[in-house]
Amino acid sequence: NGTQQAGPDGQLDFPEWFHPLATDIFLIGLFYIQHSLLKVPLQKVLQHWGIEYLERSIYNLFSALILQTIICFWVPITSWALWNVDIEPNSWPDWTLWSIRSSTWLALLSECVVLDISDLLGWKQVVYHFNHLPPPSLYRSADLNQTFANMRHPGLLEFSILLWVTPTLSGDRLVCSGLLSAYVVLGFSGQCHAYVARERARKLHEVTESVECSPSKRVRFRLPKGERIKHDK
What we know:
Blueprint lengths: L4 E2 L5 E2 L4 H20 L1 H11 L5 H19 L7 E4 L7 H23 L2 H5 L1 H8 L11 H9 L5 H9 L3 E3 H16 L3 H23 L21
Antiparallel strand pairs: 1-2, 3-4
GO cellular component, one term: nuclear inner membrane
Keywords: Membrane, Transmembrane, Transmembrane helix
Membrane topology: Multi-pass membrane protein
């Protein structure tokens, strides 16, 4: 029945999915700790050593190591699933799912490029340092810097699709999708939402004005029937 029971030797017998579930939650917890709790200590240590320009690069290196650890030690939970849809290979549902996931990966890559992928990876900070330029963050507004600081990762919608749009949502995938989605969503504050909404309204206003003032937008009129434009000789 999935409850803890005492065995013959008096020890508790856990369900078969308990240890894999505990392992997976522990691994996601490591990801939480590295992504949030260790960020400020890392900044202080690098500032003390005078190499704060390497912060983003080292942060990404630690993130890659944690993700590799999760991949190596992740334990599947296949004994139950929230849903399981049987899809035939090379059928139209299979190709539809493939198209959705491929388009999502391309959209995620495009968003990273638009947000300046060199800054996200930490290359830009290093280049600016060795060219004796101020850090890239000084060229951005305070609100934008705050949004970047609270943004767990670009592509909230894309990651939600990649995590949840699947024919089989097994127990371990449910844990991974649920915890990572909660982590990403809870990272955004009301201040970030207000900034994004304000910038979106400003951009839409600029686009509307540019379209209205475009030379290509000409006023068209028709002459009365039978009349022609007279040219001066």
